[in-house]
Amino acid sequence: MSNRVFNFNPGPSTLPLEVLKKVQAELLDFQNTGMSVMEISHRSPEYDKVHNDAIALVKELMGLDDSYKVLFVGGGASTQFAYIPMNFLSKGKVGAYVDTGTWSTKAIKEADNLGQFQLAGSSKDKGYTFIPKADEIDYPEDAAYLHITTNNTIKGTQYHFVPDTGKVPLIADMSSDILSHQIDFSKFSMLYAGAQKNLGPSGVTLIVMKDKMLDKVNDGIPTMVDYRTHATKNSLFNTPPTLPIYIVKLVLEWIKEQGGPAAVEDTNRKKKDLLYNLLDENSDYFRAPVREDSRSWMNVVFRLPSEELEKKLVTEGKAAGFIGLKGHRSVGGIRVSLYNAMTLEGAEKVTGFLKDFKNNN
Ligand SMILES: *Cc1c(COP(=O)(O)O)cnc(C)c1O
């Protein structure tokens, strides 16, 4: 596999090599069906096992009991921005949101269009370079829910605490840090994630929902929008994205083989320490804009002394086999994405590359 690069793309992003090899090995003849997994019926026993194994693995890795439903739907995380207010907001009900930029801002826009929204906290005035502290988050006691985005993929910020919301259901977009560290998932009434960062390929969105949330769903919304449709039919009301779900299952198995979220967290801590230590030790050259308590373990964002140097770094990085180092077009700079499937070796190598670049430029 000598032509595999170190892929730091923000999403879709690198997948574990072991998973890709398994997909390759099983591709033409899945479980002796003489067909690939994408050619078999979503109602066949072979696919059924994939589907249910994936659901069981989500619950196992998250430490959740049967009071939670695991759903797989299409449409990406972005679709959920609208589905959440459509399902849970009605006259007199307010959706509370913390605005930590980009994705949370998009989620707020949908809630504002479709129902009543209230800002529960924001880091907008400082360019979204931090996550508001727990005591800076404020919302009505009768809010339909509090919505947070646990990791801002673009700004490089991440929650390192779970807001204690008491009776108010906590809903989280976990697209870019799901299962990357240990967290008490039972504190969330609903969480969702597009698969293409930490869980698999694009095309499927994972939703985990407390049963009790389903009792609160509005009547009269379109069938496919209604979470009860997918919950009562085990995400088989219509054809689910079978190939992405199959690959998600393989990635979940891979996480389990690593030793689960605790072991993955351990590796991810080493990876982000390599990068942030380099930035801190060379702060005359690298500028890391994010407040220290809010630094993302998944997306390490920084600037060089000039935009020319940033361009040069991206180009030289690519030539050296480090792909995807360019910051998001909305913020510029450099971004090193360190999702679960990025190896410690990859983090070590890119750190060495950055160090050399600094010394030569
Ligand atoms: C990438 C991303 C999204 C968008 O996901 P899609 O599946 O492309 O809709 C939403 N939220 C966060 C935090 C993301 O990182």
Molecular structure report:
The chain has about 350 residues and is an alpha/beta fold. The protein has 2 domains: about 20-260, Aspartate Aminotransferase, domain 2, CATH 3.40.640; about 260-360, Aspartate Aminotransferase, domain 1. About 35% of the residues lie in helices and about 15% in strands. It is built from 10 helices and 13 strands. Strands 2-10-9-8-5-3-4 form a 7-stranded mixed β-sheet, sandwiched between helices. A two-stranded parallel ribbon has the order 1-12. Strands 6-7 form a two-stranded antiparallel ribbon. The longest helix has 22 residues, at about 260-280. The two termini are about 30 Å apart. The chain binds pyridoxal-5'-phosphate (PLP). Pyridoxal-5'-phosphate binds near residues 11, 103, 151, 173 and 194.
Low-confidence stretches: none
Cofactors and ligands present? pyridoxal-5'-phosphate
Mean pLDDT: 97
SSE ordering: EHHEHEHEEEEEEEHHHHEHEEH
CATH topology of the largest domain: Aspartate Aminotransferase, domain 2
Beginning-to-end CA distance, first to last residue: 32 Å
Count of DSSP strands: 13
Main sheet overview: 7 strands, mixed
CATH architecture heading of the largest domain? 3-Layer(aba) Sandwich
Query: How many domain regions?
Result: 2
Choose one word for the global shape: globular
Biggest sheet: strand arrangement: 2-10-9-8-5-3-4
CATH level 1 class label of the largest domain: Alpha Beta
Assigned CATH superfamily of the largest domain: Type I PLP-dependent aspartate aminotransferase-like (Major domain)
Rounded radius of gyration (Å): 21 Å
Structural class: alpha/beta
Strand content: 15-25%
Report helical residue fraction. Answer: 25-40%
The count of helical stretches stands at 10
